[in-house]
Amino acid sequence: MSDTANADQIAYWNDKAGQTWASLQAELDRQLEGLGETVMEFLAPAAGERLLDIGCGSGQTTLALARRVGAEGLVLGVDISRALLAAAQRRAAEAGAARARFLEADAQAHPFDPAAFDAAFSRFGVMFFADPPAAFANIRRALKPGGRLAFVCWRTMMENPWMTVPLAAGLAHLPPPEPPTPGAPGPFAFADAGRVRGILEAAGFSQIEIRPHDAMVGGNDLESAVRTALRVGPLGMLMRDNPQARDAVEASVREAIAANMKDGQLQLASATWIVTARNG
Ligand SMILES: C[S@@+](CC[C@H](N)C(=O)[O-])C[C@H]1O[C@@H](n2cnc3c(N)ncnc32)[C@H](O)[C@@H]1O
Fold it and tell me: How far apart are CA 94 and CA 89, in angstroms?
């Protein structure tokens, strides 16, 4: 798989990022579960349907979708990260979720059976493609005529205090991160709704709707929230490159997070797009 256009992302999600996400599975699921549920309401999976979960990670959404399609349905979780797929397989086995299956594959390039799925879903798994129009065209070919697409992606970083509050606290002790190239693969690659629409149109989707969605995220206690903030996203990357700043950063991040706890749980604002479209 490593000779595909997404070799950099495959290396990234099989190295530190995949291990980090696997070890923080419970914390990240708590933080993101509500946003995944919102997309599922738009997708409206029906009993007996066959679904794709693109960039399924450790499988929380794959299992939730499998419960919705029931014994006659099937959900295929696709990901490039072996560590996360192994976690997903374990969870599916523990849950006895026989209708959840997992595939190690690059969703941009994998030759899915044509018109094999009723719908494709993703929770933050579609912003990492080197060639997004090609990736979405590939996903569209896997859908039946009229098949549905529904995913959630982040708006700009500045609209997402769950990210900027700990990052700003940490930056008091760290060199500033490289400014991201707009649109480059990464968590905020789909911040521009016009770009997302253009990608989906180029991929052949129709009935494209892109809705802003504002919701509080968090749910973790103080220590879990600090541990998570220090290890994922831009702050996590800076921490890996600047281990000497750890104690100072951790103290400032703890203070910033403590100021945003409600009833013992972190609560910070998030801003996403909920995107839906159809094949044809
Ligand atoms: C931000 S994580 C989200 C994981 C999961 N959907 C969740 O919400 O917990 C992004 C996921 O997309 C996967 N991914 C990135 N590029 C991919 C590609 N080309 N094909 C399939 N999966 C990909 C990563 O390995 C990672 O698991």
Answer: 9
Q: Cα of 91 to ligand 1 centre, how many Å?
A: 17
Separation of 187 CA from ligand 1 center, angstroms? 10
Q: How distant is the alpha carbon of residue 3 from its chain centre?
A: 23
Cα pseudo-dihedral 147, 117, 134, 209, rounded to 10:
30
Higher pLDDT, 237 or 147: 147
Between CA 61 and CA 45 the distance in angstroms is 12
| 191, two tokens | 């911040």
Q: Which residues of 28-56 are buried (b: 16+ CB within 10 A; e: fewer)?
A: bbbbbbebbebbbebbebeeebbbbbbbb
Element of type H or E holding 118: strand 117-123
**Domains defined along the chain, listed by start:** 7-159+180-218+268-279 (3.40.50.150)
What distance in Å separates the CA atoms of residue 55 and residue 164, rounded to the nearest whole number? 24
57: alpha, beta or left? (left if phi > 0; alpha if psi -120 to 50): left
pTM of the entire structure? Answer: 0.96
Q: Residues 57-69: pLDDT tens digits?
A: 999 999 999 999 9
Going by alpha carbons, the residue nearest to atom 8 of ligand 1 is 123
* Under 8 Å between Cβ of 126 and 55: yes
Pocket of ligand 1 contains residue 102 by CB under 6 Å: no
* pLDDT of 3 above 60: no
